[in-house]
Amino acid sequence: MPATHAEWMAAAADILRALNADEPREALLSRIARHTCTLVRTDSCSVMLLDAAGERLVLEAGHALTERYRRDLEARAPLLVHPDRRESDLPAAQAVRERRTVLLRDVGATDPTWPWRDLALAEGIRSVLAVPLGGVDGRADDLAGVLVGYTDRVREFAPDELAAAELMAQYAGTVLTTAGLRASQQETIRRLERAEAQDRDVMRLLLDDAGLDGVLDALAAAVDASVTLETPEGSPLGRAGPGVAGVPPVVRGRALRRALSAVDERRTTVRAPLGDAACAWVVPIAVAGELVARLWVARTDGWADRAAIERFSLLVALELLTHRQAVETELRLTRDLAVELVSGTGDERSLLARSDALHHDLRRPHTVVLAPVGAAPATLPGGSALVGEHEGALVVLVPEGDRERLAAAFAGVDGPVVIGPTVTATDGYPPAWRTVRTAHALAVGAGTRGVLDLDDLGVAGLLLETGTPDGLRRLADHRLGALEEHDRTRGTDLVATLREWLRRGCSTADTARALHVHPHTIGYRLGRVATLARCDPRRRDGLFELQVALMVRAVQAGAARP
After folding, report:
1. pLDDT at residue 462 is higher than 60
2. Closest CA to 438 of 465, 477, 415
3. Band of pLDDT at residue 546, cut at 50, 70 and 90
4. What is the DSSP string of 204-223?
5. Is the CB of residue 250 less than 8 Å from the CB of residue 194?
6. Contact in structure between 398 and 381 (CB atoms under 8 Å)
7. Which residues form a coiled coil (predicted)?
8. What 3-state class would DSSP assign to 375?
């Protein structure tokens, strides 16, 4: 008996109420299946929808079907729209493929090899009626799936029953389309609400001065993802959220390098090609038109919200700009402080107060270093140094610096670099600076490169504080010039013998043993030194002048004190 008008109206009203109440899709489809049984006079019913690729049917809901049947249906074989073998075809797949109603009159009459035959018979299914559902996007040529009715006896369907089934399938398609539109609208509303909430979060972070770490933590929480900030060269600047293995990758293949080039050059957000391990966005962070960082946002279960990421990226850029300005301000203040210390301008109270404001303890001993402009190493022993430019050179004041490590830090610099005295009070910086300036001038005049540590000169190095470079250079030339010329032209070792004699405490015997010669030879050489230098090293006044001359030569050569 065909369904009555009242039954149709009751079914339509019930489904419409469920739709307006935002009933979950599975419950809505189950309601459609139940009303189909009533209107089409079937014993049970299922609603199968196409997967995203349109290649497979998925049983989404049903009425009066056992859980065992629903569970085992797909376990027997995939419900393919285009099966590889005719024996694996389904009435539901045929209805979708051919876009028409398909009736399987008697399951018992099917080929025994049909995969679902035993399962259907065990369920009590004898006849199957499959009707294609309308499109989910409202297009007549697009199908959502299929509506399938089952009877527990072999039967034919009258024309009015087939018409009722097709009308119900059309109505179900319309309901699915409407539900999809409502879900899309609701998702849009939720997305707008999330965006508004994120805007409030961004504003709160800005007003609370959360800092870079706070911004990265908020971003990781907002998109439930791993967040890494790195320099354009790949060095990490910050991390937040749960880590995702391999993000950012250490080894970067050709495809990833191309993607990162797009980030750097076109300043556009890209998806990083990382294979199946993670879904990662890479966002450029630019400050004043300059690329300063890349932001990696990664998940293992789908893509994070790009709009939210880009919203937070503006705050990341602002934090980096603020940090840059703070660093530049601190550098300027430390440069000014370093220059005032070595030039002697500014009183002690003011200098100490300014160093405290910069969180720099000027009460600790500092080693004074002179280096070429632009030659300060990235890291120095002893912690943060005060660095400035004065008199065409770089002033580097290193707190409690280990002199050997300090020399190693400057080893690659195209010098000369002079490591001067270690100062313990503010009034000690000007004389220390004069000392290193004098030593530097002597080294430059001699064409010396490398690092010169004035501690190697011992007590004689103190003369550099009061002496002038030209005066010291003339003294060395006056006393040692003739000796050096004699050694160069005649192949003698007078200067080396003098230096070794002084190193051996002016002991002729010890010097002879060190040089593997007779003591008389040492005596003869010292006599030649006295004649050529017009200054006898065996006399106290002569000894001092020759020591000073050799010290000047040591500075000029960048070598250790004799």
Report:
1. no
2. 465
3. confident
4. HHHHHT-HHHHHHHHHHHHH
5. no
6. yes
7. none
8. coil
Q: For residue 273, which of 260, 286, 288 has the smallest C-alpha distance?
A: 260
DSSP 110: S
pLDDT of residue 303 exceeding 60, the answer is yes
> CA distances (Å), 287 to each of 171, 211, 313, 314, 514, in order?
56, 16, 11, 10, 65
With tokens 């980096």, the residue in question is 320
Predicted confidence at residue 159, as pLDDT, reads 87
Local structure of residue 413 (DSSP, 8 states): S
Residue type, 419: I
CB of 143 closer than 8 Å to CB of 133: yes
User: pLDDT (tens digit, 9 = 90+) per residue, 140-157?
Assistant: 357 889 999 999 999 989
Distances (CA, A) of 334 to 76, 162, 363, 505: 77, 89, 15, 45
**3-state SS of 27-74?**
HHHHHHHHHHHHHHCCCEEEEEEECCCCCEEEEEEEECCCHHHHHHHH
- Look up residue 39 and give its two tokens: 């209107």
**What count of other Cβ atoms lies within 10 Å of the Cβ of residue 188?**
10
pLDDT tens-place string over residues 86-121: 778 899 999 999 999 999 999 999 988 899 999 999
Sheet with 226-230, side-by-side order of all strands: 236-240, 226-230, 290-299, 279-287, 270-272
Q: Please, is 459 exposed, middle or buried when counting C-beta atoms within 10 Å of its C-beta (0-12, 13-18, 19+)?
A: exposed
Rounded Cα–Cα distance for residues 387 and 395 (Å): 6
Which residues face 236 on adjacent strands? 230
